[in-house]
Amino acid sequence: MASKSSEETPRLRGILERAAKLICANGYEATSMQQIADACGLTKAGLYHHITTKESLLMAIMTYGMDLFEERVLTPANAVADPMERLKVTMARNLDLVTDETSKSVTIILHEDHSLTGDAQREINARKKKYVRFLEDAFKAAIERGQVREVDPTLAAFSMLGTMLWTYKWYRPGGAMNPEKLSAGMIDMFFRGVLPS
User: Fold this and answer.
1) Phi-psi category of 103—alpha, beta or left, where left has phi over 0 and alpha has psi -120 to 50?
2) How is 98-152 classified by DSSP, letter by letter?
3) Using one digit for the tens of pLDDT, what is the confidence trace for 4-34?
């Protein structure tokens, strides 16, 4: 990826967002660099000015998605002192991000994680593990306060992740369930299941 000057960053973000939408629609393997260049209003050579290879494009999309995730989910949730509220804020913000039609980069992280290799895959996986540890720590703290019954924090973390992250497979914007109703319903169902007896 080319170095990001202040002028370059918005343009690169636009490329990543358009590429992510195409890859979500067609799959990574079936999406060509020419299709991405066309969608961005660039020549193929112009696209390669910003991205060196197709895999580096995928890595850039996933990095951008993780950056968005940390900015919109982890940072605000970390500011919540109460562990149960922290978990609820995390779920609400994560669902908001997963159902956001304007950015598909987070969906790419979920759907195309097997397409990265080597150091790129290890880097993204390390960032994902950071999120799992964040959830485990929040569950441990909630258990210690008696807010959550004695459950395995790792099992609880992965159950919560599965509940939130699978949403992109079935949720349809503009359907009977709006994002607010989805978030309230899922928070209610999940957290009732972990309350002390």
Assistant:
1) beta
2) HT-TT--HHHHHHHSGGG--HHHHHHHHHHHHHHHHHHHHHHHHHHHTTSS-S--
3) 444 458 888 999 999 999 999 999 999 999 9
Nearest CA to 197 out of 150, 152, 159 is that of 150
DSSP, res 41: T
- pLDDT (tens digit, 9 = 90+) per residue, 116-141? 999 999 999 999 999 999 999 999 99
Q: In 3D, which of 145, 156, 135, 38 has the Cα closest to residue 89?
A: 135
Give Cβ neighbours of residue 124 (< 8 Å, ≥ 6 apart).
59, 62, 63, 66, 109, 113, 116
| CA distances (Å), origin 94, targets 40, 66, 75, 108 | 28, 12, 12, 15
Note the pTM of the prediction, 2 decimals.
Answer: 0.85
Q: Is 47 within 8 Å of 33 (Cβ atoms)? A: yes
Query: How many alpha carbons lie under 13 Å from residue 99 in its C-beta half-sphere?
Result: 21
Give yes or no for a contact between 1 and 13, defined as CB atoms under 8 angstroms apart: no
Pairwise CA distance, residues 62 & 36, whole Å:
16
Neighbours of 121 (CB within 10 A): 16
Residues 6+ apart with CB under 8 A from 128: 66, 109
